[in-house]
Amino acid sequence: MSIRTSGILLHPTSLPSRFCIGDMGPGAYRFADLLAAIGQQYWQILPVTPTDAAHDHSPYHGVSAFAGDPLWISPELLVKNGWLKTSDLAEAPDAPTDRVEFKKVRDMKNPMLEKAFARFENGWKRDAVANFARQTRWLSDAALFRVLTRQYGGPWSEWPQPLRDRRKDALKEAGRRFSAALRREVFFQYLFFDQWRALKRHCNRQGVQLIGDMPIYLPFHSADVWSSPHLYKLAPDRTPAAVSGVPPDYFSRTGQLWGHPVYDWDALLQAGFDWWIRRTAHNLDLFDRLRIDHFRGWVACWEVPAGEKTAVNGKWVPVPGDCLLDALSRRFSCLPLIAEDLGTITADVRETMSRFDLPGMRVLQFAFGGDFPHGSFLPHNYVRNCVAYTGTHDNNTTCGWFESEAGQREQKNLVRYLGREPAPEELHWEMIRLAMQSVADTAVIPLQDLLGLGESARMNRPAGGGGNWRWRAPEELLPQETADRFAEMTRNYGRAPAGNSA
After folding, report:
1. How far, in Å, CA of 39 to CA of 299, rounded?
2. Vertex 62, ends 58 and 65: CA angle to 5°?
3. How far is CA 270 from CA 149, 158, 166, 266, 470, in A?
4. Please, what is the Cα angle at 282 between 279 and 285, to 5 degrees?
5. Angle of CA points 477, 478, 484, to nearest 5°
6. pLDDT at residue 1 above 50?
7. Which residues pair with 240 in a beta bridge?
8. Of the residues 28, 159, 259, 396, which has the maximum number of CB atoms within 10 A of its CB?
9. Residue 214 has what DSSP assignment?
10. Catalytic annotation on 141?
């Protein structure tokens, strides 16, 4: 018999804190304790990799596939672990902000991190950091990439040619020239992963597992493309020869041009998928389950010639996804993956998911359109091996969707499906109930939907022109009445852990 579970989707940057951004400090521990108290067994988050202003701080445009974002480092835990003094936190604002302000976060946290680094340079815990560096294969390239980006800007294809082409003598000279800056980057990564692993241990002790998120593509200006250019389809001048996207469809006559460099899957296959195995192993060390963003790109990808203004002139290129998944299955005793299978999904993708028993996603906001009542997003059509959501980070909140996006037909179909017209203040609860009572083994609810928040609490508007990824949760997180109601629903639909009496 499959185990029924549920959880909450909340990116750590949205947590309450004193420092204008959620981090791995007390707010994260408090949230983990809250999840356990109300019978939730999953905390789902977005990617943890470093972001940059050029991509509006999107966690799906991380400049490294492996590094963690130093902005998540908790100053309060730095005090607890001896890196800072309490007085070093005096510059923190008196009241938390309701939006992440990335520039303010950098201006506030960087001096604190520099003070911690100064203590490290004076000999504090030097052996622990050195041991971390020795055991972390990707670290030297990621650190050097960040340092060289500060020195030369981007993209890396325009760096001095010896560094662009990673000549050994040039890399060695850069290591000498920027040795202090490199030690700083290594130290910040040590702090991130030290705090993250402590948080994960706490979550797991509380019976809460972490669901992470692994974007399939990386930006061209990233440590991984620079350090392994042979794994991507690049031109002789090291610029992309082809880029990622999706083809024209009902929603866009020109498709979507994402612009990431696409993989050279023949080179990956010849190397035994070593890079993907290392990347997956790294993520499964950080998380208990892993969502593969744009999973269909492991079966076939839409390649667009570089220089195109739209995705119209792209083509489908087969990908040896079965070979990759075979390699991963041989490497890991179990493969706790979730396939993001939203959008136009063809039979070959479904066959691959079935062959490797991978659960897909069912999003209720997609359930009440033109294919009603036969669509796969309607709960009566779910299979057990899937994850049910009211919405995702790319969707409007449930209340925002109903008020401003759902057409009259969708609203009527929802009322027909429920068998009654819910009061406005109950709409989000009705959607949560549909997900929780479904046969899906796992149900995940965004915190915004539990709080019944409107469109202003939306996390991301794809192609929305900026200002995304900034929503923050209220200090209280969940009012007691809301927490009690969700805990009761979790028990009533058999999703609470055995012995839970919340």
Report:
1. 36
2. 150
3. 31, 29, 22, 6, 41
4. 150
5. 155
6. no
7. 234
8. 28
9. E
10. no
Q: Which of 293, 410, 430, 449 does the annotation list as catalytic?
A: 293
Q: Can you spell out the DSSP letters for 174-210?
A: HHHHTHHHHHHHHHHHHHHHHHHHHHHHHHHHTT-EE
For 22-84, give the DSSP string: --SSHHHHHHHHHHHHTT--EEE----S---GGGTT-GGG-S-SS---GGG--HHHHHHTTSS
* SS3 track for 323-377: HHHHHHHHHCCCCCEEECCCCCCCHHHHHHHHHCCCCEEEEHHHCCCCCCCCCCC
Helix (H) or strand (E) holding 305: strand 300-305
Residue 501: pLDDT band by 50, 70, 90 thresholds? low
Whether 394 is catalytic: yes
437 phi and psi angles, rounded to 5 deg: -90, -5
- Copy the structure tokens of residue 315: 């083509």
Structure tokens of 398? 């449930």
Q: Are 37 and 55 in contact (CB under 8 A)?
A: no
User: Among 90, 65, 243, 211, which residue's Cα sits nearest to residue 141?
Assistant: 65
Short-list 369, 455, 452, CA closest to 412: 369
Q: Computed from CA positions of residues 68, 192, 392, 400, in that sequence, does the dihedral angle turn out positive or negative?
A: negative
Q: 489: which 2 tokens?
A: 């629903």
Catalytic one among 76, 340, 441, 449?
340
How many H helices and E strands in the chain? Answer: 18, 12
pLDDT digits (tens, 9 = 90+) for 261-302: 999 999 999 999 999 999 999 999 999 999 999 999 999 999
Q: For the CA atoms of the chain, what is the radius of gyration?
A: 23
340 counts as catalytic: yes
Q: Which of the residues 394, 403, 421, 426 is marked catalytic?
A: 394
Question: Cα dihedral sign for 53, 59, 60, 65?
Answer: positive
Q: Which two tokens stand for residue 145?
A: 């990439």
